[in-house]
Design a protein that fits this description.
alpha+beta, three-stranded antiparallel β-sheet, 3 strands, globular
């Protein structure tokens, strides 16, 4: 499912996550922690994979089109706890 979000909103979600959340998401989904970091705007492609993140320049850091929302949903679940 494709979702649109501003880059600033995506970074805000990342910044609100408790310590260790990137590793928890990676473990739960069976992916590398660097791939999770890439999802939130990192560029750790030697260790992690590309994640279907497309950024268009604009206000609030631009618009981010996410091809897959699985990591975003996991992050939101952690914030609800």
């Amino acid at each position: 499912m494709t979702t649109m979000i501003t880059f600033n909103e995506l970074r805000k979600i990342k910044d609100m996550l408790p310590s260790g959340s990137m590793q928890k998401i990676a473990d739960d989904l069976g992916i590398s922690v660097e791939t999770v970091r890439n999802y939130f705007g990192g560029d750790h492609y030697k260790e992690g994979k590309a994640v279907g993140l497309h950024i268009e320049q604009g206000p609030n850091g631009g618009i981010v089109k996410l091809d897959d929302t699985t990591i975003l949903q996991k992050a939101k679940e952690l914030l609800e706890c």
